[in-house]
Amino acid sequence: MAAPHPDQRTLHAGPGVRLDTQVIVVGAGPVGLLLAGELALRGIRVTLIERRHGPATASRASTLHARTMEVLDSRGLLADLGRPPCEARGHFGGIPLDLTLPGPYPGQWKVAQTKTEAVLEEWALGLGADLRCGHTLHAVADRTTHVEAAATSRHGTPLTLRADYLVACDGQDSTVRTLTRAAFPGTPPARELLRADVDGLDIPGRRFQRLPAGFAVAARNPAGITRVMVHAFGAPLRTGAGEPSYDEVAAAWKQVTGEDITGGTPLWVNRFDDENRILARYRHGRILFAGDAAHRQLPIGGQALNLGLQDAYNLGWKLAATLERTAPAGLLDSYDSERTAVGAAVLGNIAAQALLLLGGPEVEPLRTVLAELIAHDSVRTHLAAMISGLDIRYDVGGPQHPLRGMRLPHTVLRTGAARCTTADLLRSGRGLLLALDGPPPRLHPAYADRIDTLTAQAEPGNPLQAGTVLVRPDGYVAWAGAPGGDGLAEAVQRWFGSP
Ligand SMILES: Cc1cc2nc3c(=O)[nH]c(=O)nc-3n(C[C@H](O)[C@H](O)[C@H](O)COP(=O)(O)OP(=O)(O)OC[C@H]3O[C@@H](n4cnc5c(N)ncnc54)[C@H](O)[C@@H]3O)c2cc1C
Fold it and tell me: Fewer Cβ neighbours under 10 Å: the N or C end of the chain?
């Protein structure tokens, strides 16, 4: 056996607070918070370790895509977001793309990341998750039967933790990834963008404009704050040089657009690049990774945050079932296989978009051809489903069926006098056996606390009209068929374990 990494040997150094829990989640960003809520919903004891002292204030992602909205709906969290504006118009590499698709929430929903985090935090804490702010994790060790971790509070007090599992949701510079030396292959950065949120600017809006000297975006929000984003073709990479000064942003803006923005008041500036990496494995024994800790990408098209939230949604119920000892063999490993495949696909489309957006004049012919193709509805819907996260199809096995492995289509149902949606039926965090034409097949009583069963009629015009569906807690169809059809018992065992 290899000698322990030095950080793994120092775990028990010194006195301090000791804490036993079932799952340690490192990082209370959006991904860690959603995961903690998913675990707490199932009654799992979960402790979040967060370096920040209080809520995040930085301006980051501002877009929730259709699939993420469906996920939040299935946990009853949409009302807490208020009434965010929605735009049907998106883009692929800066080429306009209509995101209209069948489903309840097509388009881009404009929600500041701080708002998403506040909603998720309130939900997770309300369900009993334990959040330890002001603690920085600095050591972790997988002891085969359990995991240990060490953090230090901002006052210097050591905190030692022991748990069954640890999930790293600690962002793009993940400490856990470094400590575990997890393989993180991909491509190094080649180009960078400068970005600033600026008050007091009166400049024309620019939507993904490619100009002779570079690329520029200017978007003013209802509060009068303008977000500018700029890349000067051929500019040297300064990754590692820390955040840019506003003067640097203004100089690049002048070079690319000819406009002077030095009179504005910068509220926030940063630089980011097109580094593109994904962990070879999301599961390393009792240590798992999700969100930016697992994949690093250009945050373009709002896909970074949405990809991470869906990692958490896929992992939560699988980890809970593992701890409840109902999980079938391989369930936790399916998190790794399912989400590394989705992550690789999304990072591939982000890399293509980075090239289209930031490439020099040589990409113009390609952009012209792609713009022509997007005018064809089959191409448009393919790309829109990809960006929106609606194209995901997991390999769930079992007999062929158009719904198999797809998300349960949003459907309005009637059960007697009551009316509900398929999203309402997922609120419990359990699986669902839904029969649309007759009573549901009888399951062994041991599944009663794993799978809800229901007979309902779909209202006319809804996509689900007949048959029976078995749905995983994350909303993906594990089995679909006629009542009494083949393979249901196998699907129940495959995803929900033995009776
Ligand atoms: C500057 C910037 C701008 C962005 N803009 C966009 C955008 O416009 N659109 C988009 O889709 N995405 C954008 N992103 C990406 C998006 O914000 C991320 O995809 C999203 O935040 C990922 O969520 P996460 O929970 O995985 O990680 P994070 O949000 O990074 O959360 C990680 C958490 O872990 C904590 N942490 C880290 N290390 C430790 C440690 N050792 N101990 C304890 N806690 C720790 C951090 O304090 C943080 O709270 C941006 C990212 C950055 C950095």
Answer: N
**pLDDT band, residue 497 (cuts 50/70/90):** very high
pLDDT tens column, 437-465:
888 889 999 999 999 999 999 998 888 88
- Atom 21, ligand 1: which residue's CA is nearest? 305
Which one-letter amino acid corresponds to residue 162? Answer: R
pLDDT at 235 over 90: no
Q: List alpha helices for 54-187, DSSP H.
A: 66-74, 113-126, 175-180
Q: Which residues pair with 63 in a beta bridge?
A: 110
Domain of 456, in residue numbers: 412-496
> For residues 187 and 275, is the Cβ–Cβ distance under 8 A?
yes
How do residues 169-224 score in pLDDT, each as one tens digit?
999 999 999 999 999 999 999 999 999 999 999 999 999 899 999 999 999 988 89
468: CATH: 3.40.30.120
Ligand 1: does its nearest atom lie under 6 Å from the Cβ of 292? yes
124 and 220 in one domain?
no
pLDDT, position 14: 52
Type of residue at 104? P
Ligand 1 centroid to Cα of residue 401, in Å, is 38
CA of 174 to the centre of ligand 1 (A): 10
CATH number, domain containing residue 247: 3.30.70.2450
- What residue owns the CA closest to ligand 1's atom 9? 61
299: pLDDT strictly greater than 90: no
Co-location of 15 and 129 in the same domain: yes
- Atom nearest to 58 CA in ligand 1: 1
Encode pLDDT of 377-409 as tens digits: 999 999 999 999 999 999 999 888 999 999 999
The predicted pLDDT at position 5 comes to 40
Give the chain's domain count: 3
What is the residue with the minimal CA distance to atom 20 of ligand 1? 305
Average pLDDT score over residue span 421-446: 94
Where a domain ends, among 205, 238, 273? 273
Asked which of 273, 291, 324 is the last residue of a domain, the reply is: 273
Q: Is residue 172 in some structural domain? A: yes
Cβ–ligand 1 contact at 389 (below 6 Å):
no
How many alpha carbons lie under 13 Å from residue 311 in its C-beta half-sphere? 33
Residue 125 lies in a domain: yes
Same domain, 222 and 291: no
CA distance 23 to 320: 9
Query: Is the Cβ atom of 305 under 6 angstroms away from ligand 1?
Result: yes
Measured from the CB, is residue 301 less than 6 Å from ligand 1? no
How far apart are the C-alpha atoms of 350 and 366, rounded to whole Å? 16
DSSP tally for the chain: helices H, then strands E: 12, 30
